[in-house]
Amino acid sequence: MSLSVKDLVVEIDGRRVIDGISFDVPDGARLGLIGESGSGKSLTALAILGLLPDGATATGSIRWDDTELIGMPDRELARFRGDDIGIVFQEPRTALNPIRTVGRQIAESVRIHTGAGKREARARAIEEAARVRLPDPESIVQKYPHQLSGGQRQRVAIAMALACRPRLLIADEPTTALDVTIQAEILKLLLSLVEEQGKSLMFITHDLAVLAQVATHGVVLEEGRVIESAPVSTLLTAPSSPITQGLLRDATATLWRPEGGDR
């Protein structure tokens, strides 16, 4: 078992915004958290990584293997970020430092978590840029975020998240800001990297059609509560809750499907 979340409660300034969420992400699993804006999806991810905003507190249990993360000092928790759990945020424009080259940012992640020297980390940055299918990796790592397209910036964010080979990747609505064509490319890339490296995936989205491309099990949230948990195939064909039924009606279906058939 990689990640186990049990009875997670998050309060912000005394207001309960996550109310008893529980789910597991076993090794190699692809789980999706889905719900409308404000349902608690992103806060759940931030709680896992110990990155909740000021004024927020988390109780319950978040276990990584046999280690309890809730209550762990930040310095200790930091070693799990990147090494064991990587995250790709929704908007790379805000996640990337605008005054540093993208190669330096990828290399910095490698140096922090592996202790690699400057030359080795730069070589790894080029290698990771190639792994996420960025064109001309040796040239592109010398560029700044504003010189890249939205899809390229998201590929850089994925490279940073995977550079230290974490066992679990959390992807927080990583395609929302992209057009449909680029969205399909990023989803396909994420899925191929996760499968190729044998990683677990926790994918966060508001779009059931998108979730169907990358996850096999879905957890539906509303107002900080789990209202349905089922295989994605069931959510698509026989959703039991009105919220899931609404998500299915609102799904922005895409024509792209992973190579090899349905998932």
UniProtKB/TrEMBL annotation:
Major localization listed first in the record, in broad terms: membrane
Membrane topology field: Peripheral membrane protein
Keywords: ATP-binding, Cell membrane, Membrane, Nucleotide-binding, Transport
SUPFAM superfamilies: P-loop containing nucleoside triphosphate hydrolases
Keyword Transport: yes
SMART domains, alphabetized: AAA (SM00382)
Top-rank lineage group of the source organism: Bacteria
Any one Pfam family match given in the protein's UniProt record, by short name: ABC_tran
Listed CDD domains: ABC_NikE_OppD_transporters
Segments forming domain ABC transporter: 3-248
Subcellular localization(s) per the UniProt record: Cell membrane
PANTHER family linked to this entry: DIPEPTIDE TRANSPORT ATP-BINDING PROTEIN DPPD (PTHR43297:SF2), OLIGOPEPTIDE TRANSPORT ATP-BINDING PROTEIN APPD (PTHR43297)
Family membership: Belongs to the ABC transporter superfamily.
Name of the featured protein: ABC transporter domain-containing protein
